[in-house]
Design a protein that fits this description.
single chain; alpha/beta; Arginase, Chain A; eight-stranded parallel sheet; 11 helices; 8 strands; globular
Length: about 325
């Protein structure tokens, strides 16, 4: 069955023009000149992909509405975010907030909603600002204001467009927000490979945290020790990929963190460029895949995204 999925989806992807979800509004997701998040990575990627053989089309997303945001976040939290943005007051120690950043956060959510809708059609799609997995229902931080992927899931579930979603989170930091939002929900299977949270922000995402109630065993954390190389990383990924067949989701969301790269300034894993090509090859088998560009703070981030796409389209 896995071979059939891989051959079928690879054939479809070969015939599909890549949809890139992007708007210049994403450039406003700017926390200041000394902050590690650099929004220009999206623009640099667009210049880079022009030189590749990948055929693509840019799709500009609309912003999400407050009604969308409240599918996941509490009214009190949304009110706090708006007040903080108006005053240019920080949301947390690592997440400054101003009106431009908040405006972009709405576009990021809208972008991920569009990304998931396109992926449900079986098309190849990537959102250049998404997978902001540190935002919890009533708290933000870690450069994340809204949980764009959680909101997209809830909206599409409410619309009856999907029931079950499988998330593969490959960001080097554990997604405490994703875990908190779906911890008791069996309709979302969250699988996260990340650096051992005993050694890295956010300090959660341990192997024993597997969900509660009906969501028990639908939250799977794979902590990796600092210094993990590409070979060991891919081996760990290969061990969990078969869960796709067992869960039989309507949609797969890939949170594509490339802060696992050896030169990333915020973490300590040791992947190299070719490893992202290999990751892309592995995800070429998924027929309905929404790719969200999350963490990645080295100057090589645009090149690493492109390596993934080359593998996915292989």
């Amino acid at each position: 069955m896995d071979d059939i999925i891989q051959k079928t989806s690879s054939f479809l992807i070969a015939l599909t023009v890549l949809k890139i979800i992007w708007t210049p509004e994403y450039l406003k997701y700017d926390f200041g000149p000394d902050h590690p998040f650099w929004p220009q990575r999206g623009r640099e990627f667009l210049e880079l992909i022009k030189q590749s053989p990948i055929e693509y089309k840019i799709v500009s997303p609309p912003p999400a509405s407050d009604k969308d945001i409240l599918l996941v976040h509490t009214p009190d939290y949304l009110d706090k975010v708006k007040k903080s943005a108006k005053l240019s007051s920080p949301l947390s120690l690592d997440t400054p907030l101003n009106p431009g950043v908040l405006e972009t956060a709405y576009y990021s959510v809208g972008g991920t909603i569009v990304t998931c809708e396109i992926a449900l059609k079986g098309e190849m799609v990537i959102n250049l600002l998404g997978g902001l997995h540190h935002a919890e229902t009533n708290r933000g931080g870690g450069f994340c204001i809204f949980s764009d992927h959680a909101i997209a899931i809830r909206k599409l579930q409410k619309q009856g467009k999907l029931k079950k979603v499988l998330i593969f989170d490959l960001d080097v930091h554990a997604g405490n927000g994703t875990q908190e939002i779906f911890y008791s929900d069996p309709s979302v299977f969250n699988i996260s490979l990340h650096q051992d949270p005993a050694t890295l922000y956010p300090g959660t995402g341990f192997a024993h945290q597997r969900g509660i109630g009906k969501g028990k065993d639908y939250n799977l954390n794979i902590p990796l020790p600092p210094g993990t190389n590409g070979s060991d990383y891919l081996q760990a990924l290969d061990q969990v990929l078969p869960l796709y067949n067992n869960y039989q989701s309507d949609l797969t969301i890939l949170i594509l963190g490339v802060d696992t790269y050896k030169n990333d300034p915020l973490a300590n894993l040791n992947l190299v460029e070719n490893d992202y090509l290999e990751i892309g090859k592995r995800f070429s088998r998924f027929p309905k895949l929404a790719v969200l560009c999350a963490g990645g703070y080295s100057r090589q981030t645009p090149e690493l995204w492109l390596e993934f796409l080359k593998g996915q389209a292989n």
